[in-house]
Design goal:
The chain contains seven helices and no strands. The protein has 133 residues and is mainly α. It has a single domain, classed as Orthogonal Bundle (N-utilizing Substance Protein B Homolog, Chain A), CATH 1.10.940. Helix 3 crosses helix 5 and helix 5 runs parallel beside helix 7. The radius of gyration is 14 Å and the shape is globular.
């Protein structure tokens, strides 16, 4: 599929899939296939790249996030929407050389403002700390 949507929309699609994966143990390919069939969706290539990358590097990504949480906090304490946004952004920051950290953080904050209610400052702080390392 040729990219026909904005990078933000592709990230948003990736966020939805990463979020959905938090609730389902099946492989991400199956989640994508089910979403395409049941909801008649078509995913952008970049969205699929993001989701596959997050799945492939999930342990390292979660380690990065955990290392920058306040004392006493753990991944279990973070809302699933916020975790999905941060996983996507950390993946882009660490593994997508074409995406500057500032862009990954800004796009994550925009997703957070749209889907995570009051967590955008928290997400910005964690991602900023990851970026500075």
């Amino acid at each position: 599929m040729e990219n026909k949507i904005s990078r933000f929309k592709a990230r948003e699609q990736g966020f939805f899939l990463i979020f959905e994966k938090l609730f389902h143990p099946e492989p991400i390919e199956e989640i994508i296939e089910n979403a395409c069939e049941s909801r008649e969706l078509e995913f952008d290539d970049y969205a699929v790249c993001l989701v596959n990358g997050v799945e492939e590097h999930k342990d390292e990504i979660d380690g990065e996030i955990s290392a920058h949480l306040k004392k006493g906090w753990s991944l279990n304490r973070i809302s699933k929407t916020s975790l999905a946004v941060m996983r996507l952004a950390v993946y882009e920051m660490k593994y997508e050389d074409s995406v500057p950290d500032s862009v990954a953080i800004n796009e994550a904050v925009e997703l957070a403002k749209k889907y995570c209610y009051d967590d955008s400052r928290f997400i910005n702080g964690v991602l900023g700390a990851v970026s500075r390392e």
